[in-house]
Amino acid sequence: MAKENLANQRIKEEFQLGYDKRNREISEYKDLVQKNRRLIQGIRSSELIPLQKELETIEESIQKEKLQFMSQHFQNINHVYQKFADILPGDIKNLKMLIEAACHLQGEMSDPTSVRRDNCIALQLAGLDAGILWQENQGQVSVRKVTKDDTNVALDIFNIFANSTSVYSTKSQAPATPVYSTNHYDDDDDQIEEEEEDDDEDDDSSEKGDATSSLNLSQDNPFTSTFKTLRRPFYLQAKRILQAINVHPTQEQEKTERTEINIDSEELQKIHDKLIQKIRKIELGNSFSKSARKLLQTLEELDDVESFKHDLIKLTIGTIYHSLIRGVDVVGIVSMYDFDPAESIETCVVQTLVMCPPKTKQYIHLISRSYVTFPPQSLLDVVTTQCQTQNSISYDQVCEARDVINTNDVIESSIDGYLDYFVPIPRDSNDYLTSLFSGMESLKSDIDNIKQKQVQLQLQKEKIDDCHNRIHVLDNEMGGENSVMYGPDGVLFALRNQCYEVKNGKYIYEVCIFGNAYQREDMGDDNRALKGTGTSLGRWSNISSDDENARKIMKWTDGTGCWNGPSRSATVYVSCGSETVLLSADEPSTCEYVLTMQSHIACDENYKLKYCSKLSTC
Asked: 545 forms bridges with which residues in the sheet?
């Protein structure tokens, strides 16, 4: 009887300690929940709701300004169409050539590292102005026409404009963001063979490991537009010079005789890099030109002749505008109308000599069929001034074959205007075309203001996100919005993220509350370093009450699969005790592990009722 009384006394003491500890932790958890809920309510009422209302106001304001901008933009572009259309020279073939050439120049003004090679951005933007959208789907380009007064269409077009580094930016640079993607279309018939290239040089160049090799110096001249006749002399000569100076020769090339160039290595490297950049820009321009040709072909197949004529005029005007080419560039392109690219592949054409001295000419207008005089006098004066600065260029200088590269050739190649190649630059505020596009230019400040509001909008969203994050942290701390994570009354709060171990035979079993359960071999002194490792017995699943036996049941499921058996799982039966400790582990069924635990979390009213006779509480 004395032993039984002593045992009951020990049970009673363990229960009381566990019961008090459990109630104390539950009380602390309830205080935490009440505090966190007050904080969450405060964040929602004093911060989140006002921020959300302000966000809605900013969004409504931005959308309103976007629609106003697009409405004004379409009005202005229609006005520009009317002003420009009357002086735009050329038939369908000429205007298509003008668009391709403008795209080529835009490509040469763009950064080859930041744009897609197969997309004339200026023509895409011009299409949006005219309600024409090209799209790519699985390599096939399609085109559709949209109604510009549709709100969703207008907003979509605005976003495309705003995300393009174009004339809508106060920065003076060529567009740099693709709108819709198109394929890179190569025309085998348009490939130009290089003149008398030495086969041995081709082999050597293909083996280079420096930036030069990426240009495929031994490949055929890739030009496919009118610009193939204009860029051809410089392009081929630049490649010959790069092969001659070869700043990064291979060991085999070091052993062979190389062209003697009397220029110090540092200056030679600068010339090399400059030529590389120019060649890449020319190739990018050619790629833009190819893209424009394909886009126009797709539209022409969709339109009837009269519709295509009207669309073509709008696209020509829009492409000139968005490409940022200058008035003198347009004159230069128009001066090439009489040259047929298909018939002049092997012809050397010096654009400066074709354009200079400038003269007016009568062209038949595409729509009215009346005569148009181009260029107008004010533009003619500008071109005359430019021609005077380029009057030293001769046909022989540009078109004379150069089989041998000497020091002078290398030095001169770095000068702008070498072989009639002048690197194109975007038009500025003083350009003749700028006055024609004045209505469009006036909208720059509007779109910048909208972008500033969008920055405010983003800051507002970040503040709202911060509120949500703080609420999320407080929610997680108390076990979720409904406080269900930590079980009945939050009994698991004090045990969160705690792990417990027990040894059975040669194995150690480890269970982590809200974590994983493991089985691993007992490695003696190395056990501490092996915590959280071993064969997985499952991930934390849930806790439940076994009222009949006055205990708690915790489960881990979906562990490592057994060979020819189920996934491993672990069930822990928890009885009342003053401290939390694993007592035993067993595997009564294949890959189904049963463990026993003692913990104060089971010292509840149910346990008190079940064992009232031993606790003297009946």
From this structure: 552
Sort 159 into a burial class: Cβ within 10 Å, 0-12 / 13-18 / 19+.
Answer: exposed
User: 217: pLDDT confidence band, cut at 50, 70 and 90?
Assistant: very low
Closest CA to 344 of 230, 423, 446, 258: 230
Flag whether pLDDT at 522 surpasses 50: yes
For helices 49-85 and 151-162, angle between their N-to-C axes, nearest 10 degrees: 90
Cis peptide before 375 (omega within 30 of 0): yes
Give the pLDDT band of residue 549 (cuts 50, 70, 90).
very high
Strands 507-512 and 371-374: unpaired
Query: At which residue do the structure tokens 């069929």 appear?
Result: 369
Give the residue carrying structure tokens 């630059």.
425
Please give the single-letter amino acid code of residue 106: Q
String of b and e for 99-134 (b: at least 16 CB within 10 Å)?
bbbbbbbbbbbbebeebbbbbbbbbbbbbbbbbbbb
CA-angle at 461, arms to 455 and 36, nearest 5°: 150
Q: Tell me how far CA of residue 310 lies from CA of 293, 440, 534, in angstroms.
A: 17, 20, 74
Q: Is 138 helix (H, G, I), strand (E, B) or coil?
A: coil
- Residue 175 identity: P
Higher-scoring residue by pLDDT: 326, 532: 326
pLDDT at residue 407, as a whole number: 82
The one-letter amino acid code at 442 reads S
Q: Which two tokens stand for residue 246?
A: 């070869």
pLDDT of residue 140: 82
* pLDDT band at residue 173 under the 50/70/90 scheme: very low
Q: What token pair was written down for 108?
A: 């040469």
Q: How far is CA 489 from CA 20, 227, 485, 546, in A?
A: 14, 80, 10, 16
Q: DSSP secondary structure string, 205-223?
A: HHT--SGGGGG-TTSPB--
In angstroms, the Cα distances linking 591 to 129, 439, 588 are 69, 78, 9
Dihedral pair phi/psi, residue 585, rounded to 5°? -145, 140
Closest to 226 in 3D by CA, of 110, 349, 310: 349
Closest CA to 122 of 106, 141, 142, 144: 106
| Residue 213 backbone phi and psi in degrees, to 5 | -65, -30
Checking DSSP bridges between strand 569-576 and strand 592-599, what pairing results, if any? Answer: parallel
Q: Which residue has the tokens 């090209």?
A: 134
Q: Is 459 left (phi over 0), alpha (psi -120 to 50) or beta?
A: alpha
With bands split at pLDDT 50, 70 and 90, how would you rate the model's confidence at 29?
Answer: very high
Give the bridge partners for 597, in sequence order.
574, 582
Three-class DSSP category at 370: coil
Q: What is the pLDDT of residues 226-266, one digit of tens each?
A: 666 788 888 888 888 888 887 665 555 444 445 567 788 88
Q: How many whole angstroms separate alpha carbon 191 and alpha carbon 222?
A: 5
Residue-wise DSSP of 30-78: HHHHHHHHHHHHHHIIIIIHHHHHHHHHHHHHHHHHHHHHHHHHHHHHH
